[in-house]
Amino acid sequence: LSPRGPELLKEMGLVFDPGSVSTHPQDPGAADWDIAAAGPAAEAAETRWRPAHARFALRCEPPYLRAFSLEHLALQTTQCLRERRRILKSRLDPDEMLLSISQFPLLGTGTYIDHQGAPNGPLLRSQLLPDICLNSQPPFTLEIGGIVDRRGVVPYTGVPVFRDTNTVWPFVDEDLPADPYKGGILTQSCESNRDSACVMGSSTVATATPSAAAAPADLSANGLPSNAPWDALLNSQPPPPSRPLLLEPPSNKNCVLLDSPLFGIGSGGVLRVTLCAADLDEARSLHDQLAPISAIMAALTAATPIVKGHLVNRDCYWDVQCSTVDDRSAQERGIVPLTTAKGTLLKSRYGSIDMYLGPDETRADPAFRRVYNDCHFTYDKQSFWKMKEDHGIDSLLALHVSRLFVRDIHYASENMLSTGDTSSAMSGQEHFKRFLGCSRQNICLYPPNKCTSSGWEVEFMSLEAQLTDAENAAFITFIVLLSRVIISYRLNLYLPISLMDQNMARSQKVNAAGEQLFFFRRDVFGGRDGKSNGSGRISKRANLTPSRNTRPTSAGAERGTRGMNCSGVYAKAEYVELSVDEILNGSEAFGVTGILNIIFTYLNTMRLEYDVEQALRRQLLLVKRRASGKLCTLATWMRNFVRTHPEYQNDSVVSQSINYDMLRAMNDIEEGRVAAPELLG
Q1: Which one of 87, 119, 248, 618 has the fewest beta carbons within 10 angstroms of its own beta carbon?
Q2: Rounded Cα–Cα distance for residues 437 and 75 (Å)
């Protein structure tokens, strides 16, 4: 790894202001209207390059385009991505190469970065990573330090090792002790005053408790229980946790151990897709309807089968990222009784959404039912009632926002805390954006931005970065077109939060795109008439896993026509277990239309220019073929490369030479010197 990220930014003339959220020399203005028409080169030149937490990584964000169109999406997205890569490559040294990957395979083991130095530095306090890995700018050091300080110890994360024929079993990671308290990295007592969550005045914390017993008939049009007043519901107490949530340090048996938030924040490649909504109602709809598809896309873009020099028993990095940045204290995790903490938090700052936003209480949407929000979460009670009673914010949106205020903000610059200059860009809005930035979920909702004059935005967060620009463009196109279809056809993708969480867990598994089944709504056009089209019934299927030695295929193809004999049962179910192939490409046996088929129908109705429509269909074809199993994920390609390498000893260990050969091969594929038909077609 080359730690020259900050140097590259300086060479490109970008000066990072630690007190600002932007690294671009100037905020976009009216000229943005003309960027899209000027071509990929002009758009790439306006790209916002930003530093990441890790010195060996960079972030890039496209300019805010008010003149965005399907023509731009079809003809310029890929070219713009390639132009950005060309600009950055032109700054590299002769012995450097640029890769778009989720995680460096050898991070944390052996020698993996220039000028590596010794671990256990004052910034990271890690036994695996030296401080040179961390960008030394205050926002990054303060956020990493805030995670460690607030938790009381460096958060350990255990990643299960893939068991191959010669893997030493039980596997023990000798790099770290099993107990962080014995490893000399305890930074403060679990009874620290930092257990107190950020509050507003004399704020108190309550827990939103799902009303699972309420029947659909007892729900009003806005999705709230008509027979239960909100004050009684919001003051109810949660039941005790049914199982411990990371209550003890992970065992080092059969797991690779990670000991720094940097393994998850700033060093992992995430492909974020930000969607602009016409208004708040449209943004809420996109937030809710895109959430159930996030697990499907995580499985389809899986790209991290190697962690700390070992093949691991998962393909996605989502859970690892969420765990490494988990800053909940011992009280908030439920290890010790609550004394100074404001409540028990069931999830890390990074994770899947806690609740659906639903429609505004003044606008009925029969597709939404409050029983979909069937999981507990903690929220700030005072801020909830302040928004609801003083400012007229509806209950669901107020709950969504008040969840943020039960967690500390990791850092704030001095000008953010100034209350004298209300006209400053670093006003209350920027302060609120900092809270949003400290809590990342698979779907994020952002308010309008005064600097860019942008409206409400929804960010899709579960895509892992792909190797080539064509792949990244294909998944960007899919998410954008899906958002348009959701709005145009008023799709109903609602799924209970508990089932969505199960889907996220399944998406992490090896070859989840081909072998796992996911809960999904059978009829995505039903429910808009107020009827439940199945009354919440869930039908499960046996997961017939293909043999490990066979070519990756879809679960639906492996089962053949087995589902035809049970179609009558599934026809009455609201949610069924489906493969990725069946969800995206459809299944006659289970009466599933298929998301891609709906998108293709949408394109037929748009009367696009021939070259535009064909370009969009070519991009979607990659998604379609990967979902069907004809193309493999990057995680499967990497796993197969390692297991067929002549130096691999079938012991789950990825050596320096294997890693070097793999990264060179990946670079050759990205630059078009080597074909990879199993990956790209």
Answers
A1: 248
A2: 32
